[in-house]
Amino acid sequence: MSDLKTAFAAIVGESNVITGDFAAYANDWRKKYFGKPLLVVKPGTVEEVAALVKLCAETKTPIVPQAGNTGLVGGGVPDESGTEVIISVARMTKVLEVDTINNTMTVEAGCILQTLQETAAEHDRLFPLSLAAEGSCRIGGNISTNAGGVQVLRYGNTRELVMGLEVVLPSGEIWNGLRGLRKDNTGYDLKHLFIGAEGTLGIITKAVLKLFPAPRSTQTVFIGLESPQKAMDLLGFMKGALGDRITAFELISDFGLSLVTKYFPQLKAPLPPAFPWFVLSDIADSRDAAALTADVEAALGEAIEQGIILDCAIAKNETEGNRMWELRENMTESQVHEGRSIKHDVSIPISKIADFIKAADAALEKAYPGVRPITFGHVGDGNLHYNVAHPLASFTEPNWTKELDRVNLIVHDATAQFNGSISAEHGIGQLKREEIKRYKSALELQVMKNIKAAIDPQNIMNPGKVI
Ligand code: FAD
Ligand code: MLT
Ligand code: ZN
Questions:
Q1: Spatial separation of the C-alpha atoms in residues 194 and 145, rounded to whole Å
Q2: From the alpha carbon of 343, which atom of ligand 2 is closest?
Q3: Count helices and strands in the chain by DSSP H and E runs
Q4: pLDDT digit string (tens) for 246-256?
Q5: What is the pLDDT of residue 273?
Q6: Which pLDDT value is given to residue 272?
Q7: Domains of the chain
């Protein structure tokens, strides 16, 4: 190790080669994977990344690219072999250009997502990618997982927000694809290979991101309903009444909400817990707040008239709206306190969401009477987080996690029954590498392997992840 360590130190400087306490880098956010890296290296420039990768290619040293280490499928942490080097882009945090006429922002891969949101706002623009981990996830990781979050139904996944990339290939060569063009039909669109590749094809070092006009007003509403079907009816109704001004539409079950207020008692639900289901939605407009609020009030009043919703709270100001969002943003954290649930991140055709929940609930209840689904997520774009907590009477947490495969099978088979996907936004990583073989055709998997072999013939880029 020492000559590799010396060689790395010669490239990035001694202080940017970590050989001791790896916990912050080697353990994933969920504390499900405890990897053992050979080394952690933190380059400061693309040239340093290229030199590191070149050395790894020459010595056949496997690499795990890492950014904010908030991934939920173990994609950004090493295995336990002690042979893999984590290359972290966390030091590469420059915003290189904000072009408010081209509506693009050129940034380094280590930029924290929240910083980019704030930078866009300083230029009276919106960078719309938004997820609960935005305070620590980094744009290189967001691109590599094709992150989704709460505004996909209006602005798309990360894939739709990237216009150009700079990537260090497994050979150590630097591909400069940093173009800010909305049209460019000159052969294969290579950036789309690296978006969502989870670090298995190269290390993203820079990106050109799309910016949008900043909305002049945003209205947050918290709505009580009787069923998931009513929630999906409401989505259709609101799209008719408010058009594409709906920027977020999150489903929350009463059990999910009760966990948030149980573990974060300072957070208060804006409606009495009298309702079995809730929707949290944002509507944004280029007009002023008064005009938008009037439209939203009229639409929700009509929804109550038509029996689509039972009640609603309309945030009077930004503070009230943020408080409503804190309830949603703490869903994941609150489940950690309740005890490890078996998580799912599925996407279902929007029209089938309610039927999926019914089918999955029934199948799980049959297998595990008293099981407690925590159902929530970005149903506006068909992405449901269907996390399953153990039945209180018959399981405790440690033996519940042993049921992972069987619970996954039940939920993912129900997903396949509705022609859905077993990973909507979190990716495959290590967590679903076996699972994916059951739901992707052999041909699809073979084409992916052919692409991987063409770009990373030595298989040094994040081996053992995805395929
Ligand atoms: P990391 O965890 O560091 O890495 C993620 C993957 O990208 C790994 O495979 C890694 O190898 C690869 N990678 C990292 N950097 C690079 C690079 N420079 N080049 C190539 N590959 C690279 N995700 C969602 O999509 N939507 C959500 O709503 C959402 N909510 C979350 C809520 C919480 C509380 C938490 C903890 C996570 C949530 N996530 C969500 C998951 C996670 O935040 C996203 O997957 C995020 O995009 C990961 O970014 P990161 O910087 O932490 O990447
Ligand atoms: C979220 O949307 O909060 C996460 O993607 C869901 C999860 O952590 O399961
Ligand atoms: Zn999510």
A1: 9
A2: 9
A3: 18, 18
A4: 999 999 999 99
A5: 78
A6: 83
A7: 2-88 (3.30.43.10), 95-213 (3.30.465.10), 217-332 (3.30.70.2190), 339-424 (3.30.70.2740)
